[in-house]
Structures are given as structure tokens and as C-alpha cells.
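A further point concerns the way the authors explain their paired sequence and structure data. The central task, working out the C-alpha cells from the amino acid sequence alone, is never made concrete. I therefore recommend that a typical entry be quoted early in the introduction. An entry of this sort, consisting of the sequence and the corresponding C-alpha cells, reads as follows:
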Amino acid sequence: QAQLVESGGGLVHAGESLRLSCVASGVTLENCGVGWFRQAPGKERQRVACISGKHGNSYYDDSVKGRFTISRDNAKNTLYLEMKSLNPEDTAVYYCNAKLIVGRLYDYWGQGTQVTVSS
């Protein structure tokens, strides 16, 4: 059974950095489209960054472009999100996601990690 486990969240001041990690088991991230989403209180879940499964192209939401970097370590089966110049608007629960298509779509989510940025 596939499992995604995020870590690296925490409380930081505006302008500081964090790196989130997502370790996968039971699924090979190299074969998946992978991404990071976030959900702030009272708001819908938002896609922050992703890497396509087929071509490995990266996508970033405009709100994080130039500040966040998504990467994947295939040897460690781990997904990362490097976040720099954090601001209070980045405060949210961050979720790791992996989508695998083998006959049908398998959609895996982590439990989330809280990121809080104080002004």
C-alpha cells in the first residue's frame, strides 16, 4: 500500500526558508506526476508546484514562482520543496501528491505538514 510522508514544516519568520520533504513507499515517484499543494484556513487546496510524469517538466503557481523549487530524488524516492523568502501568505498545510496511471488513475496524498510564517 502506497504511503507519502511529509516533513520539514514549522514556524519561521518572514524572509526565512524551509525545505519540505515527502518520502514515498509502495509507489515509485519517478513513474508519477508529483506535486505540492497547500491549503490555508478557509481556502481551497491550491497547487503550488508539480513535476509532470511524462516529461519531467516543472510548473509553479505565480505566487511562488522564483521563490520555491520542486525537485525529486529518484534514488531516495523522495520529493522536495525548497521554499525561500517566505511570507505570511505562504502559511498553510502543505500536502505531497503523486498521481500514477496504470490502467486507471491512482491518486496518493500525504497527511500534510504545517508551515506558519510570522510577519
